[in-house]
Prior knowledge:
The structure holds 2 protein chains of 2 kinds. By secondary structure, chain A is of the alpha/beta class. Helix content of chain A is about 35%, strand content about 15%. Chain A has a 6-stranded mixed β-sheet with strand order 1-3-2-6-4-5, with helices on both faces. The longest helix of chain A has 14 residues, at about 120-135. Chain A is globular, with a radius of gyration of 16 Å. The model of chain A is unreliable at about 1-10 (pLDDT under 50). Chain B has 3 domains: about 1-200, Aldehyde oxidase/xanthine dehydrogenase, molybdopterin binding domain (Aldehyde Oxidoreductase, domain 4), CATH 3.30.365.10; about 225-295 and about 355-440, Aldehyde Oxidoreductase, domain 4 (2-Layer Sandwich); about 510-719, Aldehyde Oxidoreductase, domain 4, CATH 3.30.365.10. Helices cover about 30% and strands about 25% of the residues of chain B. Chain B is built from 21 helices and 30 strands. In chain B, the strands form 8 sheets. Chain B has a 7-stranded mixed β-sheet, sandwiched between helices. In chain B, strands 15-23-22-21-16-30 form a 6-stranded mixed β-sheet. In chain B, a hairpin with a 4-residue loop joins strand 3 (about 50-55) and strand 4 (about 60-65). In chain B, helix 16 (about 510-530) runs parallel beside helix 20.
Amino acid sequence: MGFLNAFNLGCSSITIKQDVNMTISFTLNGKEVELSAEDDANLLWTLRERLNLTGTKYGCGVSLCGVCTVHLDGKPIKSCITPLAAVSGKKVTTIEGLSENRSHPVQVAWIEEQVPQCGYCQSGQIMQAAALLEENPSPSREEIIKHMNGVLCRCGTYLRILKAIEKTTQKA
Amino acid sequence: MEAQKSQTNISRRSFLKWGGGITFLVTSVGLPALVFKSKDKEETRQISAWVHLAKDGTVTIYNPAAEMGQGTMTALAAIFAEEMDADWSKVKIEDAPVQPEIYGIGWGGERGGSMLTVGSRSVSGHYQNLRQSGAQARYVLLESVAQKWKVDRSELSTESGFVYHKKSGKKIGYGEILAFVKVPDSVPEIPDNQLKNPRDFKLIGKDFQRYDVPFKVDGSAKYSCDIHVEGMVYAVISRSPVNGSKPSLKNEGAIRNVRGVLELVTLDYGVGVIADRMESALQAKALMEIDWIGEPKAKTHNSEAAYSEYEAMAESNTAGSIIAQSGNLNRELPVTDKRIRADYKNDYVYHAQMEPLNAIAFVQDGSAEVWVGTQAADGTRRDVAGHLGIDFNAVNLHTHYLGGGFGRRSMTDYVLEAVDLSKAVKKPVKLQWTREDDVQFGAFRPISLQRLDAGVNAEGKITAWKHLVIGTGGGLLGSGADIPFYDIPNKHIEVRNIDHGVRTKHWRAVGHGPNKFAIETFLDEIALDLNKDPYQIRRDLMKNHPRALKVLDKAAEMSNWSGPVPEGRARGIAFAERSGSLAAGVCEISVNRNTGKIKVHKIWGSLDGGVVVDPNNAKYQMEGALVMGLSSVLFESITFKEGRVEQNNFYDYPILRIEDAPDEIHLEIIPSNEKPSGIGEAGLPFMGAVVSNAFAALTGKRLRHMPFTPEKVKNLLNS
């Protein structure tokens, strides 16, 4: 678990070597990562089980529910269907790297509006919303709905999600 | 009564025991979850079963119920903090140790029942218990200060984390009391008249923020799947596609050769594969070729065909279980002036909690350690102990946030699987269900057919009411079938069950969803038939139930029921009670006649839940229940063919997405001083009826079979 501690302590780079058949480098939440992995390694499970970044969740495994959403070079992607090899040389951002101390405007609005219930989908919702605002700081309600439609919530938090995003756009 | 009460002192030992001192007595294994995490014992001290006090004034309150999104970890702590007069900004909340004799409640709210989080009972069940326990913790502090200052306890008062002595002008913070606090030999039961006057509540009934929200916006909230245990391996299971069949793995050699596979474990109803990482376990599972052996009962079950079995059973003289009976239905029904009859149907529905089931277990000789999100904390601990033949206290259960429960996580099947796998490999095992596993091996809200038959007299009053609920799932079918707020002199409500051998389970509000759909839609049909307003027909029936009437009137008022409705839209109204709470709703819909898609634009809802601890969250729970209910009403259906579930994942079991959420939801809570009732499910049961009733108002056609999929809607419109 040494590497996990190194990561959590904020070292600027991480190197993990195993006797396997692929070495991959990418930027993860602003840090350079060099990782040896099996060639079929998957981004979601690597984040969760090897890098201890468990804020990104498993929900469906087939890109239908969006709870595994992370940013790849700033764009929202579903980590559950993303091979680790596909992020080579790119920038990956997870909920843990979105901000320090929940300070991203989307996170601030999420707390103000008390959006989460069970919370399991909320990392995905927040990452999806943050990517939208990056691209379009003042989206219409229609644009928000279209953009957010891929992230499911079972607890029924959708209207507060809309309210929180709209609050962010008003501030912007 | 008061005198008697004050004599029932609990001894110091039992007080501590009640208070969590037990944590030090019972845990021979895996201490971390059960012992309060304190780096320096002198910095914090447990002053009762429920609370730890720190030098800096931090008050850590134990949460006795599963937090699965309903927000009770915050509401319960608020009840305790209210009576303790703690400074809310210094309150921390941790899951209570899994000790039901201390932290459980019975169905009447009495201490020492179970730690089962179901039926919207956490706040209603714990309300008195936590007020009492908070007041007892305050008593401990007051008593210590009184002794220290050599004053009478009655001269002391408290406010927001401080004890005051008005006469001398002295005050002291709760944290400072730690230096000399004495947990007395006995702590009296605080008489009810010494609890806070509700007028003085600072938390209860006010708006405050949920404790868990910050951790749920930065990814740090820990669900059991997020736990990493040293030396842990990964497992998935291929389970029988037909409930009850047994596996025979045909390609064991090939599976063992999959890179990373460590072990295969044959279970009664499946084959588990354990690997050094998740990817390998999933690959191995995908490659398994299994013959499923046996002719279990479920194999003959075809859910579409089951409806005709139910119809035959409705016609038959089968005697089922009586849910409610009054007057003489058999005599009165045939002689009424008018008979109105209708059948309603509902398919099975699946929980679809966003976090697929998972658990981590580490079984060693004579002990087990388990990490899980569960609605049945003590039940899990007991089941694991029973399964392994070890003592309850030899099971160390770490409870975690639940990524949704809705009833599914009150079962322990997934935990026992993890236990079996860990036992087989003698390592900590993280068992992950795939979404497909979660759907296919689900335990569903029952399918049913509802046959309603009403008699109306010459004055247009409903005088006879017969309701048969026929389906599979036994006792699950009956909840909500009674009509306690509608006075109909002759009624007969009965459940008839056919066991298909498939798995059924409680699902948010259980039978209330289907039953209130049938009842409230039927009332609408009667109203239309009699040319009455669907709101007024309900008013007449509940005229002797002022609380219910108020709730219905509120929803009507909020929606301006008799007012104009935009072109192309129509409204439906309904009422339902659940877990002691009363709720009414109105929705406004339109229909796309080309696609058959129903759009719910607005919902107005009102709720009487007695004293509401956290109104903002209570409304939000109702909103969530409405949306989940709407999802089930519009989209959700599990079907069986020859015993196999036909659905797999969100592509063939769609749940409501943001594009189908209502444009607006308006909710109001009726102020009340009645004792708290359950809120988490109360918004769900009327959703089927409000949509069906609005649809009938819009199109003149009646939707009687949930879900109202676009295909069904189109067929109905073209019929």
